[in-house]
Structures are given as structure tokens and as C-alpha cells.
Design goal:
With 970 residues, the protein is mostly beta strands. It is elongated, with a radius of gyration of 30 Å. 8% of the residues lie in helices and 45% in strands.
């Protein structure tokens, strides 16, 4: 980065042209930015889009003309960005621990390979499991004046994480006055989205200040608000679980069955699917009606900066920001299924209840057992069961469980820049500190308390040992305990009010664990720059050199001692000795408090070589040292631009780039997440993500070549780019491991106990694996180690075409198309310790739901056309995302008769496009009104074989929406 008060003139004009501003706006921008120019991609002054480096610039004026999209909506329209978090839901493995956060994913290489800067300096990545890097939703959008996107590897300049490129959010410059704005977006089925912001600026003779504050609200959108999200079991089984409520159960006398497995008689009446698991009757439960497509979100953002000119050459810049995202009531299933019971790992038949349970006798009678069978039964094994399901959860308004997610960040940065006397050498020193916090709460049931309640010894007032007496209560696990399905509006004909469960009892066996994770980043920068005393034929040689120190600290704490595997390792609270330490919860895993840190030292240099008037080259090199077993890395880069004619230029770059491991990557500890495991019939299982102190940095070789044609009002930019990534930092994919051992099916298929990856799986039944007996749903947890993984090769072409005419019937007309076309996305063979994890495969054009990197569309593009005259501006934007083929094999499920039925939904996820119309009216009194229609054609997302029946990385769940906004400047 170079902040240069003496570099104005041509650069300012280039920035104004790149933003595509009108004549009046460009003049205003020149007046406001003449004193400071920030250039992404180099520490030496240069121009944005027409430089040797491929940089896109999106300015505030363009954002207003597009209806002032949110940060995540803007990112999703960028052709150069692959799938990102934002609309993705809790079922997406990529969104685990990050619901409500936003990311940017240049080239589809993964968001951790895109470096996000704020005013040219680093900010801390999001804390927590599943972090996608910097949470872009926390960027103070009201203060942002433009966004610069460097679409090329930039580790030689910026260091780690810039493999795919750099996104630099730059604040408004020299803004003077007070600006208030507000908008509302109507969304069918929800309360709508709305925001408000205020920006104040003051400009004096020797400095300026900028202060902004903003609030954004996103309303809850339930799955039932969209008719495509909730599908029958035999159409899309992904959102259905064999561990149902109502349950299937086995009447017994001791351990001897008195009848076969029975399906709860009210299964279909309350919305379950009366099917089979092999020959076993099952009541499949769908949790989808209790969940949301979009969670309720509140976002707060505050930013302030001050600039002071001490002399003509010395300036102090200070900035501070605080942002917070709050998801106060995130919806889950009414009750999670058990993946462990009182005796350790297990999902099938791990809980029992005696015949004295008030609901037990009713359940046997409704199932049609004979009086003799009932008389012989003294207990019931809950074969395929979850405690709460179709009847909702009475402690959460009879809906799904409610958890929460809170993310915040505070960041301060100060830099002092100037010159060494009359030498012409500039200097810039800076210190930046940022800290992010991720607090997550997800309720779950305590195993020991649930079993006590099933035995009639539950409740906070239980004082004796007699079931159902002295304040002790029974928990009824059968459907006769509830009146119907509140989400679907169904009535239960088998409901017996006397058998209903007490909300107080249910609240007693729930716990409300929460994890508090913090991550901080301290960055010290020092840069000097200038020009050498001799010249080449094209001009003076510019240079820059500097050093950087980064220190990252991470710590996590646990709200409840039940979460800590050191304190409560066993299902029985208070016990620390058990064969399988699965913890006290029926579903959630455990962790331990962590405190991690690492430091990185770097030095770098670059030079700008104007070889001739038409040929320019830039050279850069950077050295970074991580210490420990990770070691160091050195990365050079060469970029060249050749102006062949006044209208046409060639540009290209080649270099190496890298991404260093995070403290969590290098940790010797592990964290536990949850994922729907295909081999287990898409039931959720624990996944243990383990760090690796010996993990090395991943390295990449990048190559880019392109051309720029610009004549009159027409501009075409074409770039071919190529990445070869080696030693990628990854985890052994849990899905691939589970599939290699457990196969593919509905969870009833036999596993391969002889698989070389067997050691990464923990099975139910004390981890026993018996060939021909153990099935996929017996998988209890999967180990996912951090490793340096397989090579990746990715290549593509970017095309940008723009036309602008400032005299069309007295107004200004502009149109353009931008397309990013992937040509290659190949993943090499993946082996760990000599064991083959996965064979080489081509990810391009496939959804890759069961493997890295997720959905990879061949094409992403957008097009626009706009016309402005006087105070009016009308703009149309078309965003297009190509579809993809589901690479997974089709599955078959058993219908109500037990016969197999092939599932064909989503074998190809079709493309998605959205046509948006935006009208802007500039009224007198410095007032601007905007009106927008997004997704004018009301396109629904294509069906996908995922839980909510759409791919959030291709489609959008909103449908047609309407937005109005007003902006007033004083």
C-alpha cells in the first residue's frame, strides 16, 4: 500500500474512470481524493484496472446505482468470487460454526485463500470452528467508499493468504457534512430486511475526520415460507432422519423381545414417514419444518478515522471500528438424535423405559399388541428414537430448539507517514490490532438425566428413589404425549392429555452449553519507498522495501463444565472412568479450553521498472518465517505490461504464493463438530478436527496473461489465469473417510471393517466392527486430521466488456458484461500415511457435496445496462451462476411397502439467474431516493439433494423482493 499526497493527477483520473462515474461525480471525486490515493497490489504508486496487475474497482456511486446491496449481496454478484457463506444454512458443512457470517472466495479456491484488507491493512479472521477467514459482514459498510479486488496471487506483496488475490475495502475520503440513509426490503413470507446509517465528515486545513454508524436487520425466513424447501421423504430424503419422533421401539421382558420392533401408531398422522430400515419398521422424522432458511440477524457497525497533516510531508492516520452480528434465536430441530447413550457410543436402542411409564402402555395398545404380549412386557427399548421431534419442544414455544450466535470485532490502526528530508524517500510505519469474538450457544439433552426421566426419576424436585413419586416424573417418549405437529398444523388422533410431558421436566434434562472463542491479530508494518537516482528509457525506477511482524492469539472458553472433556468425560456426570468417554450429551461433542499463539516475521521488496515508454515491469519478493516445525517460505513475483498501441496492451504475471497455517492448524488439540454423514443415512455424527504441529505452509505457482483494449468509449479486458497449489492445508475429509469405510446407502448397508481408513472411525457398540453385522448408521464419530493434502490445478478466463457514451439523447448510457469461466479444477490423488483417501478427480462442473471444494460452477457472470439523464438513473443488472451435476451416486430408499424407490431429485442442479432493476432519483436538497426490484422474474432455486432442497452456493431463497431507500445529506 502507498498513501501518497504527492501522487495525484493521473492516478486520481484513473480511479475516477475506473469507477465509471459521471462527469459531475468524477469532478466531485477528484476534489475529494486529490490528497490521498490507495492502490491495491503494490507498495509503489500505480493505477488500478489498466495496470499490469488485474484489479477491479467498485465505487460508491456504482453501489448506489445498484440499489446499495449488502456486502454479502455484492460479493455474490462478483463473477470472480466462487461460493461464499451468507445465505448458507446450518446444514452446510462449510457454514458449521459460522451461520450469519460472510466470506469472499476469489476464483473458488476457498475463502481462506483470499486476503481481505481494510484500508490496505490486515484484519483478524473470524474465530471459531469452520472459520472462512475475515467475516465480511462485519465490515462497516456505511464508511466504505470503494472496493478494490486484485485477481492475482499477491503473497510477494502482502504475505500469507493472498493465494487467490486480495479484496481491499477502502473508506470514503475527505467527506464533509452529515449523511443519513435508510432502506427497507420487502421479502414475501418474512418481516423484511432493513437498515439505517449515518455518516459525518469534517475537513479542515490540516486534517479531516470521518465517523459512521450503521444498523442492519435481516428477518427470519422459515423453510415453510418457500414451497420448494420441504419435500416428502420419497422425493428428497436428505432432511429426514431414521432416528425419529415418533419412535420405533422393541417391547421386551428383560432383554428378551416380547414382540417385534413396533412403529409408533401415530407416525403418519403427525407428519412422519412410515417406512422401513431393512425389515425394521421405522418412522422417519423431518426436522426441516422447524428450521429456517434465513435466521433473524441484527448487525451493528461503528467506524471513526482521523487524519492530521503535521507538515507538508508528514501525516498521521488513526482509525477504529466496532461491529457486531447477533443471531438471537437460531432454530434447530426440536431435539437432536442420540449418537451416544448411557453406556457410550450408540444411536440404536441406547435408551429404555419401563412399562410403568404412563405412555408405555398406551403406545403398546395403539401399536396393536395383544393383551398377552403387553402382559409379558416389562420394559421397552427405544430402537429408532429421538426424545423430541414431531410434537415440537414445549420449552421453545413448541417449535425447534433455539440457540444463538454472536460475532463481534474491534479494530484500531494508526500509521505515520512522511519523507526523509529532501531525499525523496518516503516512509510509512503502522500498528494495527484487531480482535474478533465468536460466542455460540446450542442446547442439548443430558444423557444421564434423560434416562432418569425415562425411568420415572426425572425433574428438579425429585427427592426419592420411587419412580413417579416424591416429585419424580416420567418422561413419555411416545407420540401419545403430544397433541400434534405444531409446525405442519397436524392433529394427533392418539394424543392422551394425561400422558403429556411437563415443560418443567423437559427443561430439567436440557443443558445450554456455549463456547466463547476469541482471536486477535497484532500487525506491525514498516515500509520505505522512493525512486532510484538513475532512469530507464521509460522513466525513473520506483522501489519499496519493508518488514512486517504479525502475532495471532486464539483462546476458547466453555460456559459449562459439562462441555469440558477433562471434567466430564463420561455419560454419567461426576464419573471420570468409562470405557468410551463420549461426554454427557446425547448429541453434541466436547472440547477443552484452548490458548494458542504464533508469530510471523516478514521482509519484502519490490521495484517498478519502466523499461521503455511502452514496456513496464514490476518485481517483488517476500520472505516469511513461521518458526517451529512449519519453517519459512520465500516467494517472488514478476508482472509485466506492454502497451503495444494506444488502444491495446498486454499484461501478465508469474510468481509463487503461499498460505501459512493458523494457530488452530498447528495445535496439538482437536475440536468436535457435527456433520450429516452420507454413509450413515445422512444422520449427523461427530467429527473430530485435529490440529498438526508439523503442518507446513501450502504453496502455489500462479500465472496470469491478458490484454486490454480501450478505444473511444469501449473497453475490453481479457485475462487467462492459472493456479497450481501444492501441499494444501486441509483436513482428511470426514465424508470421504466415512464413505470409504461405510459405503453409500441409507445407513443400513454393511461397512467394510477391513478398510485402511478404519482407524479414523469410531463405531457404536464399544467401537466394535463386525463384518456383515456393523452398518453405516453405526458410525459414531469420524476423525479428521489436519494434513498437507493433494495438489490442485485451477485455471480460467475472465472477460470484461464495458461501453459508455455520455451523449445519448442528452443523457449517459452505459452497458457491460463480466464473465469468469473456469476451464480446469483438478484435484490430485490424496493419500495419508500410505493409505489412499481419495483418487484424483475433476471438480469442475460438479456439486462435490461429499468432497472438496464443494460446488464448482463453470460460469459466473453479470451484465448491466444503465441510462442516466439529469436527476434520473435507471439500471438493470443480470447475475448468472451456472448449474452443476451432483457427482454422488443416486440413492434408493424404501417406500411404505418396503420396496426400493430411486431418488432422482437434484441429479443436476440447474443454473440460477436474477434480473434486478434499480431506479435512482436525485432530488433537490441533496436527497436521493432509490427503488429496486430484485429477482424480477421471481426465479426459484433449482432442486438439490440437500436438507433444504436447494444449493445455497448456486441459488437464492428470497424470490422476488422490493427495496426502497432514501439518502439525505446536510
Amino acid at each position: 500500500m502507498l498513501k501518497s499526497r504527492y501522487f495525484c493527477g493521473g492516478s486520481v483520473l484513473a480511479v475516477a474512470l475506473a469507477l465509471g462515474l459521471s462527469g459531475q461525480a468524477a469532478a466531485q471525486d477528484q476534489a475529494s481524493t486529490v490528497e490521498e490515493v490507495v492502490v491495491t497490489g503494490s507498495f509503489i504508486a500505480g493505477t488500478p484496472e489498466d495496470a499490469a496487475l488485474p484489479v477491479d474497482v467498485i465505487g460508491q456511486d456504482e453501489l448506489q446505482k445498484r440499489g446499495s446491496p449488502t456486502t454479502i449481496d455484492l460479493i455474490k454478484t462478483l463473477p470472480v468470487s466462487g461460493p461464499v457463506l451468507g445465505d448458507s444454512n446450518q446444514f452446510s458443512t462449510a457454514a458449521q460454526g459460522q451461520s450469519g457470517a460472510g466470506t469472499i472466495n476469489l476464483r473458488g479456491l476457498g475463502s481462506l485463500r483470499t486476503l481481505v484488507l481494510f484500508n490496505g491493512r490486515r484484519t483478524v479472521p473470524s474465530a471459531g470452528a469452520g472459520s472462512g477467514g475475515v467475516d465480511t459482514n462485519l465490515i462497516p459498510s456505511a464508511a466504505v467508499g470503494r472496493v478494490e479486488i486484485l485477481k492475482d496471487g499477491a503473497a510477494a506483496t502482502y504475505g500469507s493468504d493472498a493465494i487467490a488475490g486480495v479484496v481491499n475495502f477502502i473508506t470514503r475520503k475527505n467527506f464533509s457534512g452529515l449523511e443519513l440513509s435508510a432502506d427497507y426490503r420487502y421479502v414475501d413470507g418474512s418481516d423484511g430486511d432493513y437498515s439505517a446509517s449515518a455518516v459525518y465528515g469534517w475537513v479542515g486545513e490540516n486534517g479531516n475526520i470521518l465517523i459512521s454508524a450503521g444498523y442492519q436487520h435481516r428477518s427470519e425466513l422459515t423453510t415453510l415460507d418457500r414451497d420448494w424447501a420441504y419435500r416428502p421423504y420419497t422425493t428428497n430424503p436428505s432432511g429426514w432422519s431414521i432416528l425419529g419422533q415418533p419412535p420405533s421401539f422393541l417391547p421386551r421382558n428383560g432383554v428378551v423381545p416380547t414382540a417385534g420392533v413396533q412403529r409408533d401408531a401415530n407416525c403418519a398422522a403427525v407428519g412422519g414417514f412410515a417406512g422401513f430400515s431393512g425389515t425394521t419398521p421405522a418412522c422417519y422424522f423431518t426436522y426441516i419444518p422447524f428450521d429456517n432458511l434465513i435466521e433473524d440477524e441484527n448487525r451493528y457497525q461503528i467506524y471513526a478515522e482521523a487524519n492530521v497533516d503535521f507538515t507538508d510531508t508528514m501525516r498521521l492516520h488513526v482509525e477504529a471500528m466496532y461491529s457486531k452480528t447477533d443471531l438471537p434465536h437460531m432454530r434447530f430441530s426440536p431435539g437432536f438424535p442420540p449418537i451416544q447413550g448411557p453406556n457410550g457410543p450408540g444411536s440404536v436402542g441406547v435408551f429404555t423405559t419401563p412399562i410403568t411409564n404412563p405412555g408405555a402402555l398406551t403406545a403398546l395398545q395403539q401399536a396393536g399388541l395383544s393383551p398377552a404380549q403387553i402382559a409379558a412386557t416389562n420394559n421397552i427399548s427405544l430402537t429408532l428414537f429421538r426424545p423430541l421431534g414431531a410434537g415440537g419442544n414445549p420449552i421453545f414455544d413448541n417449535g425447534g430448539q433455539v440457540g444463538f450466535r454472536n460475532y463481534d470485532i474491534y479494530r484500531v490502526s494508526a500509521d505515520l507517514s512522511g519523507k526523509f528530508g529532501d531525499t525523496g524517500i518516503g516512509w510509512d510505519t503502522a500498528v494495527t490490532y484487531s480482535q474478533t469474538r465468536n460466542v455460540q450457544g446450542t442446547p442439548d439433552i443430558i444423557t444421564e438425566r434423560l434416562q432418569k426421566a425415562l425411568n420415572g426419576l426425572g425433574g428438579p424436585g425429585c427427592t426419592g428413589t420411587t419412580p413417579g413419586a416424591n416429585g419424580c416424573k416420567y418422561f413419555n417418549p411416545f407420540s401419545n404425549a403430544y397433541s400434534g405437529n405444531p409446525a405442519l398444523g397436524l392433529t394427533n388422533p392418539g394424543f392422551v392429555s394425561a400422558n403429556a410431558n411437563s415443560p418443567e421436566l423437559i427443561r430439567w434434562f436440557f443443558d445450554f452449553p456455549a463456547t466463547d472463542q476469541k482471536q486477535s491479530l497484532l500487525v506491525l508494518d514498516a515500509v520505505i519507498n522512493g525512486e532510484l537516482p538513475w532512469e530507464l528509457s521509460g522513466g525513473k525506477i520506483g522501489w519499496a522495501a519493508g518488514a512486517q511482524y504479525r502475532r495471532t492469539e486464539f483462546q476458547s472458553s466453555l460456559k459449562s463444565p459439562l462441555q469440558d472433556s477433562r471434567i466430564t468425560p463420561c455419560p454419567t456426570i461426576g464419573s471420570t472412568s468409562c470405557s468410551f468417554p463420549t461426554g454427557p450429551y446425547i448429541f453434541l461433542g466436547q472440547s477443552t479450553p484452548q490458548q494458542l499463539e504464533d508469530s510471523v516475521y516478514a521482509v519484502f521488496a519490490e521495484t517498478n521498472l519502466p523499461i521503455t515508454d511502452s514496456l513496464n515491469a514490476q518485481l517483488a519478493i517476500r520472505f516469511e518465517d513461521y518458526g517451529g516445525e512449519t519453517g519459512s517460505t520465500t516467494n517472488p513475483k514478476l508482472a509485466v505490461k506492454w502497451q503495444l498501441t494506444d488502444a491495446f496492451a498486454l499484461r501478465g504475471s508469474v510468481g509463487t504464493t503461499f498460505r501459512g497455517p493458523t494457530p488452530a492448524n498447528r495445535s496439538s488439540n482437536s475440536v468436535t463438530g457435527l456433520s450429516a454423514i452420507l454413509a450413515a443415512g445422512n444422520n449427523f455424527k461427530s467429527v473430530d478436527f485435529a490440529g498438526n504441529p508439523a503442518i507446513g505452509p501450502e504453496k502455489a505457482t500462479t500465472f496470469n496473461i491478458g490484454g486490454i483494449f480501450e478505444a473511444y468509449d469501449f473497453r475490453v479486458i481479457v485475462d487467462y489465469w492459472n493456479f497450481k497449489i501444492e501441499e494444501q492445508i486441509t483436513t482428511v475429509p470426514a465424508q470421504i473417510v466415512a464413505t470409504a469405510v461405510g459405503g453409500v446407502g441409507n445407513g443400513t448397508q454393511f461397512v467394510n471393517c477391513g478398510s485402511v481408513l478404519r482407524s479414523l472411525i469410531t463405531f457404536n457398540n464399544n467401537n466394535a466392527c463386525v463384518q456383515g453385522v456393523t452398518i453405516g448408521n453405526d458410525i459414531q464419530r469420524v476423525k479428521s486430521d489436519t494434513v498437507n493434502g493433494p495438489e490442485m490445478k485451477i485455471a480460467g478466463v475472465d472477460v470484461s466488456i464495458d461501453y459508455r457514451n455520455n451523449d445519448v439523447f442528452g443523457g449517459t448510457f452505459g452497458a457491460g458484461v463480466a464473465v469468469s469461466h473456469l476451464l480446469q479444477y483438478d484435484i490430485a490423488e490424496f493419500s495419508v500415511g500410505g493409505a489412499l483417501v481419495s483418487r484424483a478427480y475433476e471438480a469442475l462442473g460438479f456439486t462435490n457435496y461429499d468432497r472438496f471444494p464443494g460446488t464448482v460452477s463453470r460460469f459466473r457472470g453479470n451484465a448491466f445496462a444503465e441510462y442516466g439523464i439529469g436527476a434520473h438513473n435507471l439500471r438493470a443488472d443480470l447475475t448468472y451462476v451456472d448449474g452443476a451435476v451432483d457427482n454422488r451416486a443416486p440413492v434408493s430408499v424404501q417406500n411404505t411397502t418396503g420396496a426400493l424407490q430411486l431418488i432422482t431429485i437434484g441429479m443436476r442442479v440447474e443454473d440460477f439467474y436474477s434480473l434486478d432493476l434499480n431506479y435512482r432519483l436525485q432530488l433537490p436538497w441533496d436527497t436521493t431516493v432509490t427503488a429496486s426490484v430484485f429477482n424480477l422474474l421471481d426465479r426459484d432455486p433449482s432442486a438439490a439433494r440437500l436438507e433444504v432442497t436447494y444449493d445455497p452456493f448456486i441459488g437464492n431463497p428470497y424470490g422476488r423482493t422490493f427495496k426502497v431507500g432514501v439518502r439525505k445529506k446536510f
